[in-house]
Design brief:
By secondary structure, this protein is α/β, with parallel strands linked by helices. Helices cover about 40% and strands about 20% of the residues. It binds NADP nicotinamide-adenine-dinucleotide phosphate (NAP).
Length: about 525
């Protein structure tokens, strides 16, 4: 059993009552009473707080924590007062108390807590250790020390992940140990460890009621756990998927894939996988995942800046590369089977071509003059698609050599960005990232380049109407937004992930709600 616990960090009883009510309404499964946030802390105040909590929650288990200021506590209360508070909490019926492992080494504190535990019928001790800077030097040793010191304790080991690759120490510890333990990582890079804590059997994972009330960096809201990350459906057998990129915090992919997994009643979960850095970090992440078959990672979407890295990684591993992806020279989807064998695909091609065909029948693409602005991964897929349809393509790119190379590879023309004003294209496609949130007030195509009869397609989907598409609307031109391509390519990925057709209407509704 994993509890979704909400910290109650109130200065007084009135505030606590409000927070408890909100936590219950949102679906908290456990409450952590952070008594170190209370003003005028005393054992009797905590007894009152527990009585109030029990009145409000009836059967919900409660952890009482009175955190040491040096380990993240809100106020500088003396150690002996904090110990008295925890002893009182046990007497008042708290199911769990949380005390720092380091302070438990102090004989006087230890003796008092052991006595209080012996007198309690159901109370249990969580012995916690935090590292707010980085990974523990040796998390297994630390775990063993705690278990040796007090075998009945629930070890809680929490550390800051500075990179997603730091999370694997936590996963390994959960995998190698049994019984009740609480293990996860703090920080934005540690978010996935909070999400899959339930899959890996941590006794608790913590959530806040809303964005403002988080008590630790990287803490998600209950709503994010339950609605976005399928918390209620998750179990040890859940298969994992995700989007690898940097940044990924604003990616819409987790929302649309998880909505479709839920609709199709599949035991699958899609995660944001923020892999900072370049090829080395990407390879490290993939090797971590593939070396741990028990994590059940079965597929990933790959986005900026790792599309090329993904292709090279699969090649080096001797995996299967779909011929289309090989020709495009970039992949955006990887699958791993239960033995870790990899295959790589590109769904941007189909996603873009379906979006274009919704406004321009395929037959009209033959010999159609097309301007492609950009020469990165998205451009490569779209150039391949439009070449197959027989279009006459000119590539415009900021970096001349890159544009020329792409043009040469697909037998197209090349011109510098400044030549766009002379274009006679009937279809113009922006394949650069210009115009994406938060720099929405830019476009790679001056308004005067948009000419009568032109169809304008912008692959940027955040915002849905980019400055380029706004200019095209003002000139009454036909427009294709990046969202159509995004949904089409995601639907093709869903088919690869599941073998089933995606509910594209649900994908679109989900994206529109989020946008
Ligand atoms: P990429 O491989 O990094 O390529 C980026 C392209 O943008 C390059 O051609 C680059 O030119 C150009 N560029 C970047 N900043 C520029 C600037 N300030 N001025 C002029 N040109 C600039 O990225 P990608 O994978 O192709 O993705 C490009 C965009 O497409 C991203 O916004 C991505 O989110 C979007 N996308 C959308 C979908 C969808 O489904 N709608 C799918 C894939 C990608 P240089 O060669 O000179 O660097």
């Amino acid at each position: 059993m994993t509890y979704l616990a909400v910290p109650i960090a109130a200065a007084d009883l009135e505030q606590a009552k409000t927070q408890i009510k909100a936590a219950l309404q949102k679906g908290a499964e456990m409450l952590e009473l952070r008594s170190d946030y209370l003003e005028n802390l005393s054992p009797s105040l905590v007894e009152e707080l527990i009585a109030e909590t029990k009145r409000a929650t009836r059967s919900l288990p409660v952890i009482v924590t009175c955190r040491d200021h040096r380990q993240g506590g809100a106020k500088q209360y003396q150690c002996l007062l904090r110990v008295d508070v925890l002893a009182a909490a046990l007497k008042a019926g708290a199911e769990f108390i949380d005390f720092e492992y380091e302070n438990f080494l102090d004989a006087q504190s230890q003796e008092k807590i052991r006595r209080a535990l012996a007198e309690s019928t159901k109370g249990r001790l969580i012995l916690s250790a935090h590292n707010f800077e980085s990974r523990f030097d040796d998390i297994r040793k630390l775990y063993q020390h705690i278990m040796t010191l007090h075998p009945a304790a629930i070890p809680k080991l929490v550390y800051k992940a500075n990179h997603i690759n730091d999370c694997f120490d936590a996963f390994d510890l959960l995998r190698r140990t049994g019984g009740d333990r609480i293990v996860f990582c703090m920080g934005e890079a540690g978010i996935i460890s909070r999400i899959i804590a339930k899959k890996l059997g941590s006794l608790v994972t913590f959530a806040s009621v809303d964005d403002k009330s988080a008590t630790a960096e990287g803490q998600l809201t209950i709503e994010q756990f339950k609605k976005l990350y399928r918390y209620d459906a998750m179990n040890a057998d859940t298969k994992l998927y995700g989007t690898i990129g940097s940044p990924v915090a604003h990616s819409l992919s987790p929302a649309i894939h998880n909505a479709c997994f839920a609709k199709a009643k599949l035991n699958k979960l899609y995660l944001p996988l923020h892999v900072e850095g370049g090829k080395a970090e990407f390879e490290q992440f993939m090797n971590h995942v593939l070396g741990r078959s028990w994590l059940n990672f079965r597929g990933v979407s790959v986005t900026i800046p790792h599309k090329q890295n993904a292709l090279e990684f699969v090649k080096a591993k001797g995996g299967f590369i779909e011929p289309l992806a090989e020709r495009i020279g970039a992949v955006n989807t990887l699958l791993a089977d239960e033995n870790g064998a990899l295959s790589a695909y590109n769904t941007d091609y189909i996603g873009a071509m379906e979006a274009i065909e919704s406004k321009l029948p395929i037959a009209e693409l033959k010999d159609l003059p097309v301007a492609i602005v950009g020469a990165g991964g998205a451009a490569r897929a779209i150039v391949a698609g439009l070449c197959d349809a027989g279009a006459k393509i000119t590539i415009y790119n900021r970096t001349i050599e890159k544009g020329q190379e792409l043009a040469w590879q697909f037998g197209c023309d090349f011109a510098p960005l400044t030549a766009l004003q002379n274009t006679n294209a009937r279809l113009l496609v922006n394949c650069t990232s210009l115009g994406t949130y938060p720099d929405t007030n830019v476009t790679p195509v001056p308004k005067k380049c948009l000419k009568k009869g032109m169809v304008v397609f912008d692959v940027v989907y955040n915002p849905r109407e980019t400055l380029l598409l706004k200019h095209a609307r003002e000139k009454r031109l036909k427009r294709i937004d990046g969202l159509s391509m995004f949904i089409n390519q995601a639907a093709a990925q869903f088919k690869l992930f599941t073998g089933k057709s995606a509910d594209t209407k649900l994908m679109r509704r989900t994206v529109c709600r989020k946008a």
